[in-house]
Amino acid sequence: MANVNNINVVIEKANDRMKEVKNTIVVMSGKGGVGKSTVAVNLAIALSLEGKKVGLLDVDLHGPDVARMLGGRGQYPTQVGDEVVPPEVNGVKVISMSQFLKEETSPVVWRGPLKTGTILQFIGDIAWGELDYLIIDSPPGTGDEPLTVFQNLKNITGSIVVTTPSVVSQDDVEKAINFLGMMKQKILGLVENMSYFVCPDSNKKHFIFGQGGAKKLAEKYDLNVLAEIPINQKVRENMDDGKPTAYFGDPEIVAPYINLARNIIDQYDK
């Protein structure tokens, strides 16, 4: 996928392909370990459950997890004529680097140009078809992968920034917010993951990582908090097992993702 002879041709092809996508949303964070991929996968599922045509693109080339989380482990793109067709898993079309590795544990040891070319080919060479939403899951930070997306694709319609309530997370996420400002990208809002834990014995909320971190950032940058998603053991178990919570979870843990999807839809359907 990474052998790119003429990057301008690849960029043009990617942008032509994106004309079939109504809304492209990048899910990112300045901090690793905040559950960004969990949010991206469950948002994609929730949008699909709301009746939308959805694709999910994993541009985390070094730690590609979304296919497993979505339930697509062992499902691969297929060649149909001159096009590569992505598998549809639980109602969502998905492309991830993990689908192109000989072994799941094989490392991807690439520098910038190879990563840039591959990400653009993931868009331009894939027959996504008509989509209401393409969700792009970006790795932590503000490096090659999000730069490739924002600098080369013309119709990114918004970004979601994922944080946790902790001060350390806020520090790094603030960098991502400023990065999106530099890229002149619209921020749809913040998602606070691991917002609190509800004790199953007492039904009491415990704010393990602090409280109100996303609200502080939202007030500082005049942003919306789109969702506050609690910690729940079943969410972790579901994602490990390839059973995305928004599709397979109990109502109380599904609700935050459905509400997040509806918040997104409301912004675009105004």
TrEMBL record:
<keyword id="KW-0479">Metal-binding</keyword>
<dbReference type="GO" id="GO:0051539">
    <property type="term" value="F:4 iron, 4 sulfur cluster binding"/>
</dbReference>
<dbReference type="GO" id="GO:0140663">
    <property type="term" value="F:ATP-dependent FeS chaperone activity"/>
</dbReference>
<dbReference type="Pfam" id="PF10609">
    <property type="entry name" value="ParA"/>
</dbReference>
<dbReference type="InterPro" id="IPR027417">
    <property type="entry name" value="P-loop_NTPase"/>
</dbReference>
<comment type="function">
    <text>Binds and transfers iron-sulfur (Fe-S) clusters to target apoproteins. Can hydrolyze ATP.</text>
</comment>
<dbReference type="GO" id="GO:0016226">
    <property type="term" value="P:iron-sulfur cluster assembly"/>
</dbReference>
<protein>
    <recommendedName>
        <fullName>Iron-sulfur cluster carrier protein</fullName>
    </recommendedName>
</protein>
<keyword id="KW-0547">Nucleotide-binding</keyword>
<keyword id="KW-0408">Iron</keyword>
<dbReference type="GO" id="GO:0005524">
    <property type="term" value="F:ATP binding"/>
</dbReference>
<comment type="subunit">
    <text>Homodimer.</text>
</comment>
<keyword id="KW-0067">ATP-binding</keyword>
<dbReference type="InterPro" id="IPR044304">
    <property type="entry name" value="NUBPL-like"/>
</dbReference>
<keyword id="KW-0378">Hydrolase</keyword>
<dbReference type="GO" id="GO:0046872">
    <property type="term" value="F:metal ion binding"/>
</dbReference>
<dbReference type="InterPro" id="IPR000808">
    <property type="entry name" value="Mrp-like_CS"/>
</dbReference>
<feature type="binding site">
    <location>
        <begin position="30"/>
        <end position="37"/>
    </location>
    <ligand>
        <name>ATP</name>
    </ligand>
</feature>
<keyword id="KW-0411">Iron-sulfur</keyword>
<comment type="similarity">
    <text>Belongs to the Mrp/NBP35 ATP-binding proteins family.</text>
</comment>
<dbReference type="InterPro" id="IPR033756">
    <property type="entry name" value="YlxH/NBP35"/>
</dbReference>
<dbReference type="InterPro" id="IPR019591">
    <property type="entry name" value="Mrp/NBP35_ATP-bd"/>
</dbReference>
<dbReference type="GO" id="GO:0016887">
    <property type="term" value="F:ATP hydrolysis activity"/>
</dbReference>
